[in-house]
Amino acid sequence: MSLRKELIKLAHGRPELRKHLVPLLKQTKTAGTFKYEGNTALDMAYAMDDLLADIKRKLPVGSIRAEAAEVTKALRKLENAVKKAEKSKAKTARADKSWDDYDRSAPKTPWGPAQDAYVIDRGVAWYSTAGHGGMKVARGVAQKMLSDAARKMGDLWGGAYWYEEDVGWAIPCYEVPKWDALLTRKLGGSIHTKDMLGKIIERNYPKYFKLLEEDFAMPAPLKPGDTVEFKINIPFSGGITFKPGQQVTVRKVDRSNFIFQAGGGLYRLKLRYYEDGDVVKV
């Protein structure tokens, strides 16, 4: 389908809206055929969505804005079709390792047991599961290669930072462009420019750029013997809740959790609480 023709059709009978769509039509003038394959088409969909959102913000209130919303909704359907095709294409790529359903040896991910794994770089891999997937960056690699802001936006789980496949992956690839190139080589498609990745992040994770501007710094790593203080109520099984101001001593730190002692008992808490500032070192 011709993307330009599709946009013109969507704006048909709406002269005022069509006038505002001129920049978008010019941008897609040389787009050619809109194919449901390849990252180029997906990037185009993201660019359309961004530009339409900007146009919609500048439109006068009332019916014109409502019409713009209809066009945006129609284009989102096209974008979703591209994403679906991208996921289907990724499934056909040759994985470095695969596991059958119910295979107990399959690595665990935040989204369930892995079905396919693609090694991207040392300490970096892409995992797909039955329902979702994304990029895994080993904790040591993340501490060396990624900013504190990027690690803050990831999900610390199982000794690594995870970035989901829809948009989260763009954050580590934005900071380490070669990972995007290596990922593309594995899964196919076109390499993203840093500007493309930045727009994806800005639309979905605006907090990331704010943290960069603020020179956000992660707290120093915890170690056994440290004393930490709770800043929020954190409940545990057995009806026990640690309250703000309560201090405990760290006994052990593993890949994703730390163990502390309190009242004669040992408790395990995710390091994410410490990185988020819900528990602080004193």
Describe the structure.
The protein is α+β, with helices and mostly antiparallel strands and 282 residues long. It folds into three domains: 3-92; 97-213, no CATH class; 227-281, Roll (SH3 type barrels). Helix content is 45%, strand content 22%. It is built from twelve helices and 15 strands. The protein has helices at 3-11, 15-20, 22-27, 38-58, 63-92, 139-145, 148-153, 170-175, 177-187, 194-204, 206-213, 271-275, and strands at residues 97-98, 108-109, 112-113, 116-121, 124-128, 133-138, 155-157, 160-164, 227-230, 234-236, 240-242, 247-253, 257-262, 265-270, 279-281. Strands 1-4-5-6-8-7 form a six-stranded antiparallel β-sheet. It has a five-stranded antiparallel β-sheet with strand order 14-13-12-9-15. It is globular and about 55 Å long. The protein starts with a helix and ends with a strand.
